[in-house]
Amino acid sequence: MVEQGEMVSRRTVLRGTAVAGALTAGALSVRVPARAATGRRVAVFGGGVAGMTAAHELAERGFEVTVYEPRALGGKARSIAVPGSARGGRPELPGEHGFRFFPGFYHHIPDTMRRIPFSGNANGVWDNLVAATEARFSRSIGPDTIVPMGPGKAWSNPDDFRQTLASVIATSAKMPMTDAAYFAGRLLVFMTSCDARRTGRWEHIAWRDFIGAQQHSVEFRALMSRTLTTLLVAAKDDRASTRTIGSMGEQFLGNPLLTGDDGPLDRLLNGPTSQVWIEPWARRLRELGVRFVTGRLRRLEVRDRRISGARVVDAGGAESAVAADHFVMAVPAEVARQLWTPEILAVRPELAAMNRLVIDWMSGIQFYLRRPTRIARGHVAYVDSPWALTSIAQNQFWSRTPLSGFGDGTVRDCLSVDISNWNTPGILYHKPARECTHEQIAREVWAQIQAHLKGKTDLPEADLHSWFLDTGVAWDAARQRNTNADPLLINTVGSWAARPQPHGALENLFLAGDYVRTTIDLATMEGACESARRAVNALLDTVASNAPRCKLFPLYRAPELEPFRQLDATRYAAGQPNSFDTSV
Q: In the 8-state DSSP scheme, what is residue 264?
């Protein structure tokens, strides 16, 4: 049986024997001419992680690629220069949409990074990843918890897993053992569930309900339900499916020895994202012959079940035609679904389901400081913050480009904060972030952080140099609320059915983006990269190319539990609960 992570295109079976020798090929160091029966010109719409990945993979295989991007390469992953902050020949301070996070279980992004040359690095941009050694869970009332990010204790069987994980959680999170043991048991239920149960049942149950958060302690609800989803996977516990969050728990907590991981559990870049990743990436793509054009896709034209052309609009509003043999849509979900015309939906009616996908806000604000802050040697979750804040102090990781080399030269640190809840009133102005001016947002975030750190860690207001809010958030004075040009697709219960495959009945249209079906099933850089690889593989299959296929990586599953997953397949088919599920 084909698992959901395989997602084989409809032409793979027909043409698989012709390319079987290339399916397991690794990274390419030179351009490999690809045999393509219908041409080699590819138009990629969107220059974020998905679009750049697609361009990279296609260019390495000899395709002629043009990327159309309306704003800036890198999308949400790029650095954003703080306007007017440059002084004395130094560049502008680096801002961002939100801090970068590269868990060790990511494989697609690191594989791409290794193929991006960077001066002095043997492994390209990948060598710019550095480990965060701890995470801090800060509370407005009560002591904080600091959890080391190194490998955990090994386990050998289900009982050992429950006892080991429960002990670790109870000790590190200062949680009652009964709660910790219950959580460990629920994660064991998920990890021993077969694919059919994960898709047929757990996909349709919210994480909060699966772990019974409402029946347990405040600490349990805060850490194992709300904070686990917010900090680790940028999701919301009352809306995200158990299938997705459980899979992430399987990676973070179910693999204590980091078996098969690409690196340490928590990693960051050693400098501003654009400097140490996006700009070198763009240079590499240009070396491979990729063209970049400033333009926004206005519409796709359809003829005979194919995309016959496209129209793009430049920064000045002028419209022009795009001619190509193949078209890759790497724009965000909310943009893509506005482009599905009746003609497109007549051929690919399943794309209409994308209207059920939910978009929300998660944007960042940076506080530039005159002195280094020592809140944590890693990420911090502000457990009781109404706006679900998380942060990272960046300069401690930026060995390559310290912040003192930017702006006026007096900045020594940057506390980069993600705001994950824009709909709940704050503690200072008693308004949700959507309804606060930018100045109010800055003051409110600072106040919520101070409420957590007061009396524990020094973060003097006198150290605050300036702040910068993601430029995608714009204040609408007439409506007295913000708009957001860069919202985030969020995982919700049952949303898997609304996520499209990278390829369908429109023969030369391919979809890449974090809304496309991937194994990670989350709005992440990893999901965007994986989706682009799947789109490129579908294109290669469609044209019967002899080029190597893009490498795809599965998520980790503990081999010790495989017999229990096989047993669960039989139980699920018979309508019986998982053998470890005592809640039914």
A: -
